[in-house]
Design a protein that fits this description.
The protein is α+β, with helices and mostly antiparallel strands and 354 residues long. The chain has eight helices and 20 strands. A six-stranded mixed β-sheet has the order 6-7-8-3-9-10, sandwiched between helices. It has a five-stranded antiparallel β-sheet with strand order 13-12-11-14-20.
Length: 354
């Protein structure tokens, strides 16, 4: 097996007695686009700063290309960082900003100019080298910061919420441009964000952090459809968490008793006892399919058109006192008071330890 480009081995970062990062181990492959995702205070930016060398871990090691970088200063690491506020020099024009890292490395002036022009061309700013920073829009400044980072040919490009200050349409455009740039360069990207949609749109691998620990890591589809923990199930979009008890277990699967009836699930590894079942709102449907399980009848309390779907809140369960979120197709005609028979594919139900 190919050795990972970046390895974090039991990394812990303490600020006083508070653990901002706690015993994180992580491997990142060459050319991978990794997104560190989590709420504010989850440790994602601290972890990025440890990778960059801006702070040294209290414990653990940071390995890059097989070398221990735990105590190596930022300038001597094969990494560059794009900051949320871009950190451009206002007294320099665009070309000098982009060439700054090359100048610090002693690259001759002609090569600096050629490489800077090539980097600006890559980010869609060809011919903009003579402009001043204050003349640029937010999206253009972000592109300059990217050009300055890639011009030094880093092995790992670190991005600290670089799209956070952009409006929605520009943010989506820049997501596509970042992906195109990463695929073109083949550089390993490690991107920090708190935006779940941004993470799922861009990442090869998502690492979900919570209170300084890794809750889950894997491809976006697996993280969303088969979350490993209750936190991930609720943080990655909407989810219905349903309490239940495993009443049968054999080679074919398990039966879980819930307030919506007994559900037969194909989870052969689940042990008897209390569990939580995670079901995404779009996985609950008002028409049965082959092998679907019935969840009983639900009464619509609220419904809101959201463009791609109709977001509904229903009351259901044996006693009609359990709330469910359901996303129906956008063309569905539904209003408060309507009664819907609800179904789910057992293969979509994720059982989480209680």
């Amino acid at each position: 097996m190919t050795r990972p480009l970046v390895s974090l081995e039991g990394v812990t970062m303490l600020f006083g007695e508070t653990a901002a990062v706690s015993d994180v181990s992580l491997e990142i492959r060459e050319g991978e686009f990794v997104v560190l995702l989590g709420p504010s205070g989850s440790g994602k930016t601290t972890l990025l700063n440890i990778l960059a060398g801006f702070v040294e871990p209290t414990r653990g090691r940071v390995m890059i290309s097989g070398k221990d970088m735990s105590h190596v200063p930022p300038a001597r690491r094969p990494t560059t960082t794009v900051f949320q506020d871009y950190a451009l020099f206002p007294h320099m024009n665009v070309a000098r900003n982009v060439a700054f890292g090359l100048a610090m490395r002693g690259v001759p002036a002609l090569q600096r100019r050629q490489r800077s022009e090539a980097a600006l061309d890559l980010v869609g700013l060809s011919g903009a080298g003579g402009r001043r920073v204050h003349e640029l829009s937010g999206g253009q400044r972000q592109r300059v910061a990217l050009a300055r980072a890639i011009v030094v040919d880093p092995r790992v490009l670190l991005l600290d919420e670089p799209l956070g200050a952009l409006d929605l349409n520009l943010r989506r455009q820049m997501q596509e441009e970042l992906l195109h740039l990463q695929r073109h360069l083949g550089t390993t990207f490690v991107h920090v964000t708190h935006d779940q949609d941004e993470a799922m749109n861009m990442a090869d691998t998502i690492v979900v952090l919570n209170e300084g620990r890794v809750e889950d890591q894997g491809p976006p589809a697996r993280i969303y459809l088969k979350p490993a923990t209750r936190f991930v199930a609720t943080f990655m979009g909407d989810s219905n968490l349903i309490g239940g008890t495993v009443t049968r277990r054999d080679d074919h699967g398990v039966t879980v008793a819930t307030a919506f009836g007994a559900l037969d699930l194909p989870d052969r590894d689940l042990r008897e006892g209390k569990v939580n079942l995670s079901i995404r709102p779009e996985q609950i449907v008002p028409a049965s399919g082959d092998g679907f399980a019935a969840l009983g009848e639900g009464v619509v309390r609220e419904c809101h058109f959201s463009g791609t779907h109709v977001r509904c809140r229903l009351m259901a369960g044996h006693d009609g006192d359990r709330e469910l979120q359901v996303h129906l197709p956008a063309r569905t005609a539904v209003r408060p008071g309507d009664r819907l028979n609800l179904y789910v594919d057992p293969a979509d139900v994720v059982a989480l330890a209680g």
